[in-house]
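## retry 2 of 3
previous attempt timed out at serialization; input unchanged, resubmitting
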Amino acid sequence: FPLGGFTPLQSSTLSGVAQRLGATPMQVALAWLLRRAPNILLIPGTSSPAHLRENLAAADLDLPKDTVAALDGIAGTAQK
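## retry succeeded, writing output
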C-alpha cells in the first residue's frame, strides 16, 4: 500500500478481510499487491522459516472482486 503517513495494516477493512479469509492482514496486503500488476516484485522481510511460509501462502489467497475493490479503497485513502 502506498503509505504516505497512513498505516493500512491497522485498517478495520483489511482486518475484516483477513479474518474472513483466515489469513493475516499482511498476507492479504501481499496478495493484493501481487494482483495489482504482473510486473510487481515483492520483497517482504522474513525473519524465520515460519514467516517465510506465511509470506508464501499469500500468493495462494483468492481475493474476490469485491474484496479487491475494498482493498483498493484503502489504497485510495492513503493517497489522499
